[in-house]
Write a structure and sequence with these properties.
With about 425 residues, the protein is α/β, with parallel strands linked by helices. The chain is built from 16 helices and 13 strands. It has two domains: about 260 residues, Thiolase/Chalcone synthase (Peroxisomal Thiolase, Chain A, domain 1, 3-Layer(aba) Sandwich); about 160 residues, Peroxisomal Thiolase, Chain A, domain 1 (3-Layer(aba) Sandwich). The chain is globular and about 60 Å long.
Amino acid sequence: MNRRVVITGMGITAPNGIGLPAFEIALKEGISGIRKEPELEKLKFRCQVAGRPQVTEEMLQNNFTSLELKDLNSSGIVYGVLAGMEAWRDAGLEGDSDETDYDSGIIFGTGILGVDKFREAIHLIDDKNTRRLGSTSVVQTMASGISAYLNSKTGCGNMVTTNSSACTTGTEAVIQAYERIKCGKAKRILAGSCGESGPYIWGGFDAMRILPYQYNERPQESSRPMSASAAGFVPGSGAGALVLEEYESARKRGAKIYAEVLGGHLNSGGQRNGGSMTAPNSEAVVRCIQKAMEEAGVSPGEIDSINGHLTATGKDTTEIRNWSEALQRKGNDFPLINSLKGWTGHGLSASGSMECVAAVLQIKNDFVFGNANCEDLHPDIKAITGRRNVPTKTHFRRVNTVIKASFGFGDVNGVVVFRSL
């Protein structure tokens, strides 16, 4: 089978905007969600800035029951449910039926859940007071807790699972959902990912000294993808969600369509030939990009815009070289390229799904958002892309085809191609 797959709903919980309207405004107007975190300063982190979604009590009340909120202590589940249920409702799927929907599934990834709940549990167990753990401690600390929470609200009866591939998690979920629908095993899947906030998530990266510390008093300047003065990635968090659906199903029920998923590819560099736990194998990256285009049936010349991984580290230049080699395009012929991480920080396991939402919004609403803090474009990148193809301001123009990539810890890669319908 070779069914067409489209996107009929999206949701977002990002540091610079919760909900599609706020997030789109932030993209178009260049609004940063990176702030100084007093908790990190108190704990004497070197990097004291981060991207954390600003969740309100009203948002919680609108998405969780009072019983759920009583013991809820997982920011990842909060972010994932807000984004996932926005996408579900946006697709016109209310989820209030008493019947199980065997045509719909969930693939919603994460890196780790319930770190604060784990910490609470350790203290209670050490104090021999396990009865105070609460009835939701298990679901909040198991990785698949996010897909379980979402399914309690949607009633999906198809595949319901959680994937985990570091920074590639969200993009991987989208590709896996696409493949399942394409081969006729589901009509629609809620795909996405979430990542938690806080010092117990971000502390290890601070210890590795790969986070910027020079901008603690200027947080909005701290995340600098493709910049000559990039000093490391800013830790972030949040969630993105997309409802992927078989085209005929979407057409029959009159659903709005954001874009078509043309294809994608997943691979690994095997931590060989320059690839490692923290660095991608360039040969595998190039291969992943090219295989994604082959799967999608598009030529390099059809790519209007690239949404890169681009974390604001020394690997940004390598990534740009890999794009140029894979597409065989450079200079004025290089596509427009951007990175969401300048505005949100690096959402880790949430990054791919948040960036997929941003990429698809560009197609639906005809714009390419600019890059934060990139006025001093790295000279090695400028030599490949030219200056104009790395915009610092939003370009309002027709966007037909966007290619989006994620390259994750452990040398794992995911690339997906979206197109207007």
